[in-house]
């Protein structure tokens, strides 16, 4: 899950401004390829007007996008092949590899048929805690809690706080406030307990709300055997690694390999950092991923790939294909590379 917030909104404006410039800029800023990032792909989202709707795209948009990229010469390759192509400096032409975070069931039921049509491989990053139910899709849970009540009482160390959720506008504000509280004020390790306590103390049955939006282990085993699917690691519990001490952060990155190996019989070679933005992954975490023996690791930093990324295979940027930009023209602009320095203070080769 990722929401870059302000940076994403600014990028949206810049895309509109720079769309016409993209073809001209390509020789100067264009990369050798791109890692595309998906979350949900469904024509029938459960909450089409919800605060997390940007995490979803429609299957027909994915279809149109892959068709457009193929018509412009992009080769859709596995992540393993993408890594080889980066190491080779991109001499075999423009390439793209598709990734999806969190293992949403619609990746299997709605995205995969589209990818089969185009023979386009996908890497799905799995966090075992989310699949076992020992970790929550907390952003989804927050939305459900806020939707369920007109008023919430949040127990904080400074005493109870009342949060008004009585109108659409108040609910947006309540979501933003709870996001900030859970990601900035509460310890990462306590986030789940705090969220469960918030639900319980406000009379909300979380197990009743538990979404069936993620794949089960049986689903994951089934897709893992598909010729187009690679399973990658998304850490054990989907925590913000930068907020953990070294032992816990290393555990999240290392133990997920053992757990996926136990469930699937195969050692994952690739990692996606949870959240993936600057306040969730830095030099320390990149070092941990390298130490753990992964062939690659991806962030959610915005950018196309350059030959120089051969030296930064554990800090690869991606192009987010999300509900905010369901326009092939906008993605073309992003793939041209023109938005890469715009979103990264002038940097062309984005790492962390
Ligand atoms: Zn995620």
Overview of the molecule:
- The chain is globular.
- Helix content is 44%, strand content 16%.
- With 352 residues, it is of the alpha/beta class.
- It has 15 helices and 12 strands.
- The longest helix is centred in the last third of the chain and has 19 residues.
- Strands 1, 4, 5, 6, 9, 10, 11 and 12 form an 8-stranded parallel beta sheet that branches. Strands 2-3 form a two-stranded parallel sheet. A two-stranded antiparallel ribbon has the order 7-8.
- It binds zinc ion.
- Zinc ion binds next to loops.
- The site of zinc ion (ZN) has 6 residues, from loops.
> What's the tally of helices?
15
* Mean pLDDT rating: 92
What helical percentage do the residues reach? 40-55%
Quote the distance from N terminus to C terminus. 17 Å
- Characterize the largest beta sheet: strand count, sense, and whether it forms a barrel: 8 strands, parallel
Succession of helices and strands = HHEEEHEHEHEHHEEHHHHEHEHEEHH
Counting helices, strands and paired strands, the structural category is: alpha/beta
Give the beta-strand count. Answer: 12
**Poorly predicted runs:** none
Strand portion: 15-25%
Distinct small molecules: zinc ion
Shape: globular
Radius of gyration, in Å, reads 20 Å
């Amino acid at each position: 899950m990722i929401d870059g917030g302000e940076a994403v909104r600014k990028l949206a404006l810049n895309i509109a401004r720079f769309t016409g410039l993209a073809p001209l800029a390509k020789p100067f800023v264009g990369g050798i390829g791109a890692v595309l990032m998906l979350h949900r792909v469904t024509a029938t989202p459960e909450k089409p007007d919800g605060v997390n709707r940007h995490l979803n795209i429609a299957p027909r948009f994915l279809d149109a996008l892959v068709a457009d990229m193929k018509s412009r010469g992009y080769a859709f390759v596995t992540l393993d092949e993408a890594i080889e192509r980066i190491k080779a400096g991109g001499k075999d032409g423009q390439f793209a590899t598709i990734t999806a975070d969190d293992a949403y069931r619609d990746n299997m039921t709605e995205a995969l048929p589209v990818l089969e049509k185009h023979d386009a491989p996908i890497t799905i990053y799995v966090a075992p805690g989310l699949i076992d139910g020992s970790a929550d899709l907390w952003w989804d849970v927050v939305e459900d809690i806020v939707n369920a009540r007109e008023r919430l009482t949040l127990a904080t160390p400074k005493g109870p706080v009342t949060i008004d959720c009585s109108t659409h506008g108040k609910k947006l504000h309540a979501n933003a406030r709870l996001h900030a509280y859970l990601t900035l004020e509460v310890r990462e390790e306590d986030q789940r307990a705090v969220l469960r306590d918030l639900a319980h103390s406000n009379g909300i049955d979380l197990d009743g709300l538990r979404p069936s939006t993620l794949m089960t282990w049986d689903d994951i085993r089934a897709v893992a055997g598909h010729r187009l699917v690679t399973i990658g690691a998304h850490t054990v519990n989907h925590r913000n690694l930068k907020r953990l001490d070294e032992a816990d952060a290393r555990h999240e990155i290392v133990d997920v390999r053992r757990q996926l190996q136990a469930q699937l019989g195969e050692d994952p070679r690739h990692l996606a950092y949870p959240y993936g933005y600057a306040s969730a992954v830095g030099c320390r975490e990149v070092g941990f991923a390298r130490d753990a023996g992964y062939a690659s690791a991806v962030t959610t930093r915005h950018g196309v790939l350059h030959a120089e990324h051969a030296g930064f295979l554990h800090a690869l940027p991606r192009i987010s294909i999300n509900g905010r930009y369901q326009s092939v023209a906008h993605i073309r602009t992003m793939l041209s590379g023109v938005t890469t320095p715009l979103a990264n203070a002038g940097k062309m080769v984005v790492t962390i």
